Amino acid sequence: MKSSRDLILDYIKNNYDDRKGFSAMDIAEAMGMQRSNASSILNDLYRQGILLKIKGKPVIYALNSTGGTAITEHKEGTNFDALTGCDKSLKKSIQQAKAAIMYPKRGLHTLILGPSGVGKTMFAELMYKFAVENGIFPLDAPFVAFNCADYANNPQLLLAQLFGTKKGAYTGAHKDKEGVVGKANGGVLFLDEVHRLPPEGQEMLFYLIDKGKYCPLGDEEKKHCEVLIICATTEDIDNVLLNTFTRRIPMNIKIPPLKDRTLEERYELICEFFTTEAARIGKDIQVSLNTMRQLLLYECPGNVGQLKSDIQLGCANGFLNSLSLQGNKIEIHCTDFASHVNQGLIIYKNYAQEVDKLLKDNIEICFTPKGQRSRLKEGDYSLPQNFYEGIEKRTAELHKRGVGDEEIKLLMELDIENYFKNFIRNFEKGATKYELSKVVSEDIITMLENFLRMGGKRLNKIFPVKVFYGLALHVNSTIERLKSGKEIVNHNLKNIRSNFPEEYELAIELARIIERDFFVKVPEDEIGFITMFLTVDELESQEFEDKPIVVIAMHGRSTASSMGEVVNKLVGANNVYSYDMNLDKSPELAYQELKELIHKKHQGAGVMLLVDMGSLGTFGELIAKELSIEVKVFTLVSTPIAIECSRRAVIESDIDKIYSDLNASLATYASYNVKVTDTFLPSEENVIITLCSTGEGSAIELKNFIESKINLKSYNADILPMSLNNKKYLYNLINSLSKDKNIIAIVGPIDPKIYGIPFITTYEIFVDIECTRLKELLGKGVSKGNLVEEMEYASFLEVLQRDMGNINLFKFEKLYEEFIHGLEAATSKPLNYDLRVGLLVHIVCSISNIIDGKLTPTCYSKEDLKRRHRKIFEAIKSSIHPIEDYYKVDLGDDEICFILRNLVNE
Q1: Helix (H, G, I), strand (E, B) or coil at 608
Q2: By CB atoms within 10 Å of each CB, which of 122, 274, 508, 708 scores lowest?
Q3: pTM for the model
Q4: Which of 302, 288, 386, 301 is nearest to 345 (CA)?
Q5: Which helix (H) or strand (E) holds 861?
Q6: Shortest CA distance to 454 belongs to which of 513, 495, 496, 408?
Q7: Listing from the earlier edge strand, what are the strands of the sheet with 759-761?
């Protein structure tokens, strides 16, 4: 029995000659069904490309005369706005296409430019459909496509096919024959490979454009024809087309090659093609991470068309391999693809940070006929032996599949890093020494504490706590493995030794200590694994939402690059890029080079362009328009301004807010007498870091409170307020500071878990009125231990009220107590006192900032937090309503997630 979809489609096809289209009500009445059901099916047929959707009241659905097949590059539907990249690399092309179609009376003739495989034919079809759906052409207007290359070797026959022939025009012409120009009368004529048209044919075509007339071969009578001409070519039009022809085609549209499109767009295309193959095969397709990596990066000269073909070939090989397994899904591995595709893996390390934003190594990627479905991989990292066993299992699997030794070596270089990331990730939240001592001997713990303390000084860096716990379990496992005589193989040893020579030398020292104390021989391969723990910050790329970047462009040979190097070193965010414009370089070349730099480096959240003078100042607006990237220009750049731009780009994702805030305070940085240390770096030898989990509001309040209690100058100490919103930036900056400064302690609501640096909670700072623990750490005074007596909230609110004139905290204590009670009741979990105090300070500062008109910073892990802690998120949101109502503020989801992050300590 046919489905409702098939019955509706049959009805439309059988009755199409009598009508120009059907509304949802027409179909509902004809098929005896609800209008809503009919509308749903018609829209589904539209999304598949089988029907056109004509705007109006009512909406009319008509058969798609261009073939009735879905466009695989669409997310849904067959319109421009559903194209992959419609708001990015294709935005300008689509705007031009719509303008060409909508131009009175019947549009502008158009030339589409781009290399083979970018989708020029598909783009022309979409222009036609856009014209029909917007009433520029009637429903029955023809779309005729003709490839001039098909008859390029016979120019006379090419012209005959194009313009038609009169009976007797040449031998064998026994009757009149209409050409494609005549067939396209009243509609669109698409001429692909138009550069293969001889000069004579181009002249005949521009006569048609000028006069609306043409003459078939052998005929003296001219025929009238109204047609919109869309041409396409892969060549440079100045070299292959007559000037008299090209000047009659006012609209030139460039379709970018695949290499110029963003990785996000390429990822979407890959997913779309796998979904198409899953529908064709009728089975789910599970794709390995290395497959996705190589498809994202390999050189693809045939562009989107070749990408699609290569994916089809990989799926065909995967399908063949799956026949013997008789399962419900097909597994696709990187070895299922041609060798030129595998080349993408070789360059993966050069683009790992960009690629890993799209691909998470703990996610399984699966495609069904209905789209992509991803899920967290199941794994057990409780036993450190899995680190070795996972590598051994993967190697054996590759051998079994017949993969060669060289290919295995390449794949395992990548996989070892992935196994390491998964292993170390298990220790993100840290543990206690007591818990660790249950599985690791006290000798190993003491050995590693001394080693990391010495190693941190040697390398001038700090280690996250997870390095200590992960390395302890790993060393414990290694000793057991070596004593049992098992082999250790590290396929990535050569790269590790080459890329991290200082860490490798330090790992050798630890290996010698292990050999001395535990009577085992540590092989060189294991020294490579130990090195990976010492380079965890370099190997591990944390995931954050897109954020603005800073580009410094200045005249001179190295003016900009020198300033950029200083800023990256001082701020530690590595988000500053430089462009040096030699004085003898032409503005045209400089524009192209700067545009290419911005196109390559931008991350989707905009660019702050800092320039010194001249033509560089005018480039920002032009680049923004051409690349569809938001570019904010700052003139008269200086190092303090560049530092502040870099720093703000880390803790803020809203480039408009950064731009307005910096413009408002530009005078602060304009003076030539201003010092970098006045605007950013602490000048004293000893540094205390205060943290805020959003921007820097609470951190500044903590700084003010500590400074009111301690004469920091007597301790040669400064306080640096920082945001905890971006841990990678926090670690980079502390690493940079630790090379020249003595970091005394970190104070804040959440412990960032940095090995060897004491952490003091917000609560402890407020209850320890004399700040005795800080004084002890600064080298003076006697420790009185941790204070356990709980103070009233009023004591903290009194301190905060003195510093905040825009908020009345008279009723806050009662509201806050109700908030805490509601939260504890909803989560069935009591909150300890220092957490409650930390939250109090945080919420008060957030309300104050909102009242001042400041925007809440973006929580980079918002969606992940909401997904994993939905119940707590909703509890916070409902419990905090009375506070929001009283102060007439809306904290928003970002702020709720910052509070949530405090609660779950992430």
Answers
A1: strand
A2: 708
A3: 0.58
A4: 288
A5: none
A6: 513
A7: 717-723, 686-692, 742-748, 759-761
The torsion region of residue 299 among left (phi > 0), alpha (psi -120 to 50) and beta comes to beta
The answer to whether 283 and 238 have CB atoms below 8 angstroms apart is no
User: Residue 214 and residue 321: Cα distance in Å, rounded?
Assistant: 57
Distance, in Å, from the CA atom of 669 to the CA atom of 678, rounded to the nearest integer, reads: 10
CB 762 within 8 A of CB 749: yes
Torsion of CA 100, 102, 108, 111, to 10 degrees: 30
d(CA 882, CA 255): 54
For residue 184, the one-letter residue type is: A
Token pair 């006045």: residue: 678
CB distance 59 to 53 below 8 Å: yes
Q: What values do phi and psi take at 241, rounded to 5?
A: -120, 150
Quote the CA–CA distance of 652 and 723 in Å, as a whole number.
10
Residue 432's pLDDT band (cuts 50, 70, 90): low
| CA–CA gap between residue 712 and residue 602 (Å, rounded) | 41
Nearest to 205 by CA among 154, 252, 163: 163
Residue 625: strand, helix, or coil = helix
Residue 22: strand pairing partners: 61
Give the strands of the sheet with 576-581, arranged side by side. Answer: 576-581, 549-555, 607-611, 631-634
Residue pair 278/370 in contact (Cβ under 8 Å)? The answer is no
Q: What is the pLDDT of residues 145-200, one digit of tens each?
A: 999 998 888 888 888 889 888 886 666 667 888 899 999 999 999 999 999 999 98
SS3 223: strand
> Which residue in this structure is represented by tokens 């549009």?
107
- Would you state the pLDDT for residue 313? 87
CB 841 within 8 A of CB 762: yes
What is the DSSP secondary-structure string of 766-808?
HH-TT-HHHHHHHT-S-------PPPPHHHHHHHHHHH-TT--
CB neighbour class for 346 (10 Å; exposed up to 12, middle 13-18, buried from 19): middle
